[in-house]
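Hi all, posting the design record for the shared folder.

TITLE: backbone redesign
STEP: 1 of 1
STRUCTURE INPUT:
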């Protein structure tokens, strides 16, 4: 820690956004992503309809949110697609196994993590490959920038875009996030808040299960969070809440060997 290249990240993202004409995305986000920008991002589809995001952590495993599978945990009906466009995807895989955290209890948001095993391995390319997982002991400083990506709604209850959206958010410390006017004590040690207390930029419905990532000093990208919940989208004092990946690092190893 310490050497996170916030400045570099902001530079990369602002150059990216200047290179395109930016408009309103992922709820106040930067812009549409391009093929290969976020190569670990997957779309999880139920009966071929996008439901949630997921992140590639090996050739055969994705990590996502447990709530994506409530009363829909039948692997046969799920597929995962890769590539920045939902239609046409650049790669599609069927799902072999879904592992929901044993302590997850709908409608609570605690332990909101699931693992999805693909029926056939994905060969990594420059545009489809895994993200790095942080060590359990890793602590990410508050206020650093991180990126969220997904095909979720562009406004609360809005439509699903075909192109992957990206936005920059800041990590918010749990004491602040647990304040009365924010989430009033609802943030557990399994959760992490990110976004802006002034509102405006956030993940939204359909982004769930997708990644919150931050680069290290070598520009290797680490999965910090999994889109989990929020009070609507992008409202002041209601930042996005993410599953804290470091808390589950050993659980991931116990289930996948990764
Ligand atoms: N639970 C939502 C979903 O199923 C995503 C919630 C994220 N909301 C937010 N405001 N950050 O897609």
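Okay, here is what came back for every position:
SEQUENCE:
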């Amino acid at each position: 820690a310490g050497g996170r290249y916030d400045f570099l990240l902001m530079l990369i993202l602002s150059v990216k956004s200047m290179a395109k004409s930016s408009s309103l995305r992922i709820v106040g986000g930067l812009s549409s992503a391009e093929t290969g920008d976020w190569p670990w991002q997957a779309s999880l589809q139920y009966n071929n309809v996008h439901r949630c995001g997921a992140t590639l952590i090996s050739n055969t495993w994705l990590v996502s949110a447990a709530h994506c599978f409530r009363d829909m945990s039948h692997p046969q009906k799920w597929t995962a697609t890769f590539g920045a466009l939902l239609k046409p995807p650049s790669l599609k895989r069927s799902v072999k196994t879904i592992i929901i955290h044993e302590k997850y209890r709908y409608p609570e948001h605690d332990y909101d993590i699931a693992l999805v095993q693909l029926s056939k391995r994905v060969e990594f390319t420059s545009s489809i490959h895994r993200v790095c997982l942080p060590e359990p002991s890793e602590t990410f400083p508050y206020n650093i920038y991180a990126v969220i990506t997904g095909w979720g709604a562009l406004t609360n209850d809005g439509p699903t875009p075909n192109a992957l959206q990206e936005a920059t958010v800041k990590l918010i410390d749990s004491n602040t996030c647990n304040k009365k006017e924010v989430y009033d004590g609802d943030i557990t040690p399994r959760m992490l808040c990110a976004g802006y207390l002034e509102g405006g930029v956030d993940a939204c419905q359909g982004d769930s299960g997708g990644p919150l990532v931050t680069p290290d000093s070598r520009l290797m990208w680490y999965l910090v969070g999994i889109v989990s919940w929020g009070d609507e989208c992008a409202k002041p004092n209601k930042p996005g809440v993410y599953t804290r990946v470091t808390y589950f690092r050993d659980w991931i190893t116990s289930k996948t060997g990764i």
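COMMENT: The first helix runs from residue 6 to 18.
Let me know if anyone wants the other runs.
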